[in-house]
Amino acid sequence: MISVKDLHVCFGRGTPLEVHALRGIDLNIPQGQFVTVIGSNGAGKSTLLNAISGDIPPEMGRIIIGHQDVTRWPTHKRARSVARVFQDPKMGTCETLSLEENLALGLSRGLRRGLKPALKSGKVKELKELVASLGLGLENRLHDKIGLLSGGQRQALSLLMATLQPIEILLLDEHTAALDPKTANYVLKLTAEIVEADQLTVMMVTHSMQQALSYGHRTLMLHEGQIIFDIHGEERESTTVTDLLNLFERKRGEALADDALLLG
Amino acid sequence: MSQIAFLGAIETGLIFALVAFGVFISFRVLDFPDLTVDGSFPLGAAVSATLIVSGVNPWLATLAAILAGGCAGWVTAWMNVRLNILHLLASILTMIALYSVNLRIMGKPNTALLGEDTVLMPFESLGLPYYYTTPLAFGVVVLIVVTLMYLFLTSEIGLGMRAAGANKNMARAQGINTGGMIMLGMAISNGLVALAGAMFAQSQGAADVTMGVGVIVIGLASVIGGEAVLPPKTILLALLGCILGSILYRLAIAAALNADFLGLQAQDLNLITAALVAFAIVLPNAKRSVFKKSGALK
Predict the structure, then answer these.
(1) What pTM, to 2 d.p., does this model score?
(2) Is A80–B169 a contact, with Cβ atoms under 8 angstroms apart?
């Protein structure tokens, strides 16, 4: 379970470039809920994810993961309950390490690392089976450097790595935005499968309203650092992309200036 | 080149292989350009020499040197991680500070070790001439260190350290304390360099406060040269490349200084070093573009 209470994030406080990126976010995500997050550029979607993962320290407010107040915890300490897949495939995996080494890193996320060999034969066998389950034929390339793989393959591996250890929440930051449409579909399908199989609690940021409505249980829209609406259940099922746009315009009394929202 | 000059080059090459390991950890594993090395090399020499002269067991003295070097590396990393000082600048600050520290430790600019017990003693009692025993002793040390380094870098912590150096965001997301890894890695790196300094002082019979000048360039030359000769496809190859690069570098220097027709003299050492490093950096790119032109890399 995740709770965010009155969260404020401000960049460059007191400078001419001051940006109040989050203005009082209140959010409760129960165990096993899949939340999609939409909003125009600069709405604060990524900032919210970064605040939950620990990459951005909030100015005010609380973040509670499980029953633990993690507001002051650094990213690496939160990693035992928070996993994430980045937008840029280069970010989520380590280019200079081999495929099996990357997976081994995911396998010991949140655990105490010691002086035992990172790649024991038993572990490698386990990893091989996991990679084979992706159906990409990567199980024969365990020794290859990650830099040799395509963006889609790397995102699939990032997803796999994120779920190697039990987590409280999976953060997906537009993790298909940098991929071609066909690969993006594959990664999205894989995401849905993994989330379903492990009953994960998920927050997925997306630029596509269609995706936001067709995946998960609940949809949030952010605008200028605030949650402007939050739909789930029947209300959400009967909502269409056009409804979302109308709702947005009514709430804010302004037309959407950002085409990216329409084109997803 | 005479046999003695050849073995001398091997001997120095083996000592500087330890420096190359240290530089490999800072520059390659952690991506942390570290000049502390120029201070931690004489630090190792100063600590071990001073302790040996005051009657401490040479092995203990060498261990103390490693710990002192580790502290120096940790200080540089701490300034970078906790105080947010640019890594290069943090290392230069430690390097400069160590000059004073080294003078304080010895109480004078140099300490002679003539007639003192050193870690080389057990090897000298083998009955071989000195120009065989010293390279042999250093060979054993390098073998031990390379084994430990390999085991460490392929361990869970070692893998975490490599990730922390290569991709900080990803490492943090996988629960790795990247700041802690930088401090640990820099301590190990400079501990190794201090070990090299301690060994160097004991084989040369003296520690001198100026003996660290240019050590970083030699270490870097060894790492880069090693990579050019032996592409570092795996960690083991990268470590062996450090040894190979270090020895080849020494042989190249010895050959250049011994080739009378070139007219080079001992004072030209740093000029040759700089030229060799520049050459080693350019070589891999030059090789690639030559292949590309001839179409061999299609």
Answers:
(1) 0.89
(2) no
